[in-house]
Amino acid sequence: MKATATEFRLRFWIFVAIYWLSFSLYLFDHQNLGGWLAMNAGRLLPSLTGGVAVKIVFWLGTLLAVLGAALRTWATGYLRPEVMVDERVHSARLVADGPYRFLRNPLYFGNMLMAFGYAVMASRVGAPVLVALHVIFLLRLIGREEAALAKTQGESYAGYCRAVPRLWPSLTPRVPAAGHPFSLGGGILGEAFFWCLALAEAVFAVTLKIKVFYWVLWASFAVYAVCYAVIKLQRRSGDADRAL
Question: Which of 28, 85, 114, 140 has its CA 20 to 30 A from that of 188?
């Protein structure tokens, strides 16, 4: 079942709402999943002291968050940051370079890595809700994008779908490079928010201070607003240049 146009337009804020809902479940379960996992790991492996086990759990979560941000940056560098913030599905071209040679939806796989990384920051009840809602919403977004691409790209996209996995990456490239240019700066600009999310979890893994985590987390929205404004300005400037 594919997402509606409204869901696609508001996808960023729906993801924010999923995180907010998941973390609000601390009202019903006060036990943090990461701390609970560390406690049980210490019971299974007595050589792990409580502090060491906690650090390991939250650094593993941070690693997943970093991998998610890095994958999205790699993908956005090919897709372009203005596509990332657009309210419409872009289906005029088929990108088959970089991570798109290994899986069809690297951006959404990056979202899943981030969700699993952040699950250890949620409660034992909130963590599965966070992951489950991500899966449901991502599949809806994928359904909408794939329908648009199938309509505009026809057999070329059908062949791409037959060759490249949908959401789980292949270990080797499944299609030859198409020659689209890569922009590291564009990738970082488009995914700065995700890097801030990874930074927030890394700061917590170092300090184990939840207030510091939330300060960095809230600052990430200011970073998103600035990057969003820059991307929109660049797009308007590009449109004006093409009109001349």
Answer: 140
Q: Name the domain count of the chain.
A: 1
Q: What is the pLDDT of residue 243?
A: 45
pLDDT tens digits along 97-113: 999 999 999 999 999 99
Residues 202-240, buried b or exposed e (16+ Cβ, 10 A)?
bbbbeeeeeeebeebbeebeebbeebbeebeeebeeeee
- pTM for the full predicted model: 0.92
For tokens 């968050």, the residue is 65
pLDDT tens digits, 188-242: 999 999 999 999 999 999 999 999 999 999 999 999 999 999 998 887 766 544 4
In this structure, the number of other CB atoms found within 10 A of the CB of residue 30 comes to 9
Token digits for 52? 């060491």
CA separation for the pair 207, 5 (Å, rounded): 42
Residue 180 structural domain: 5-243
Between CA 68 and CA 62 the distance in angstroms is: 10
Q: How many CA atoms lie within 13 A of 45 on its CB side?
A: 11
Q: Report the DSSP beta bridge partners of residue 32.
A: 123
DSSP label at 4? P
Helix segments in the chain, DSSP class H: 5-9, 11-24, 33-44, 50-79, 81-85, 106-119, 126-153, 155-163, 184-207, 210-243
Whether the CB-CB separation of 50 and 42 falls below 8 Å is answered with yes
Tokens of 243: 């009109």
